Amino acid sequence: xxxxxxxxxxxxxxxxxxxxxxxxxxxxxxxxxxxxxxxxxxxxxxxxxxxxxxxxxxxxxxxxxxxxxxxxxxxxxxxxxxxxxxxxxxxxxxxxxxxxxxxxxxxxxxxxxxxxxxxxxx
Length: 122
Fold this sequence. Notes:
The protein has helices spanning about 40-50, 95-100, and strands spanning about 1-5, 10-15, 15-20, 20-25, 25-30, 40, 50-60, 65-75, 80-90, 95, 105-110, 115-120. Strands 1, 2, 3, 4, 5, 6, 7, 8, 9, 10, 11 and 12 form a 12-stranded mixed sheet that branches. It is globular, with a radius of gyration of 14 Å. It is mainly beta.
């Protein structure tokens, strides 16, 4: 199980991202409204040395459609690895539904106790 925290009503979890020889462990917002894998800032993308592989249209929270650069990276969670699509945006780092699906996680948010957990499902 991966534990996180609910800070000011925002669910945060830590993930492991790698590309080439670089590895980062950013905290990301668990965003069930984000259908993608991961979104990172340009700073994180640069530190990892991510290579932009394309641009994808994305509908942001206000309904606007914007073009966002994409790259590939490897994510690791509890000893499992997966190649993931990474969106690179000035917005905050996010983990979306596709990310949870690739790792077979169930997300639990306990607002009363300010806890977030990702549990791997068989």
